[in-house]
Write a structure and sequence with these properties.
Layout: E1 4-5, E2 19-21, E3 28-30, H1 31-34, E4 39-44, H2 50-67, E5 71-77, H3 89-99, E6 105-107, H4 112-116, E7 121-122, E8 124-129, E9 134-138, H5 154-165, E10 177-180
Parallel strand pairs: 4-5, 5-6
Antiparallel strand pairs: 1-10, 2-3, 4-8, 7-10, 8-9
């Protein structure tokens, strides 16, 4: 289990545009389709990563709770499905339904979106404000598979709560740790 940290895209970066297929609905989603009234969470995840499996229940809970508060949520998988077939789109759909995702789960076959966001690992989280400027990037919380710390989503929750209430974001933003994105061989 590789432990790859986030690249920590600079705060203030404008959210890169995307137009990707949603594996659940079968429709194409864009950044504009999924953005929330108060902010937008873009997360890079996949099916097979033990770090993502560890936090999946929290992702479902946070999505449900914060979508009601005006935060848009979207998950993107950019992994190479030739070498990692468990991350294929039809299995992404099964996983999204099994986990109760209330947000789109998009497939980035070209990996261009992951590169635009400088995503490095799964899970990797980005929170953008209503102007689509980056205000938080990094970890969900301090929990990792096997470390005994409960999954609470504390870091991302705090960032979303501060965004909703208009408070400044914490300067202390820790990188996420997870499996590296499975890049296609050139």
């Amino acid at each position: 289990m590789a432990r790859t940290p986030s690249n920590m895209l600079p705060l203030g970066t404008r959210a890169p545009h995307f137009e990707l297929p949603d594996t659940v609905s079968g429709t194409v989603k864009t950044l504009e389709n999924v953005r929330g009234e108060k902010g937008t969470v873009v997360m890079f995840i996949c099916n097979h990563c033990p770090f993502v499996k560890h936090v999946n229940p929290a992702l479902s809970r946070l999505g449900k709770a914060y979508q009601e508060k005006g935060i848009g949520f979207v998950a993107i998988s950019s992994n190479d499905v030739i070498n990692y077939p468990e991350d294929a789109p039809h299995l992404m759909k099964e996983n999204a339904l099994a986990e109760g995702y209330t947000f789109p789960y998009l497939y980035d076959e070209s990996q261009e979106v992951a590169r635009a966001y400088d995503a490095a690992c799964t899970p990797d989280f980005y929170l953008f404000d209503r102007q689509l400027e980056l205000v938080y990037r990094g970890q969900l919380d301090d929990s990792r598979p096997g470390n005994g710390i409960p999954v609470t989503g504390a870091d991302l929750k705090q960032a979303m709560d501060r965004l909703i209430s208009g408070e400044p974001q914490s300067e202390a933003q820790k990188p996420s740790i997870g499996c590296n994105i499975k890049w296609k061989e050139s």
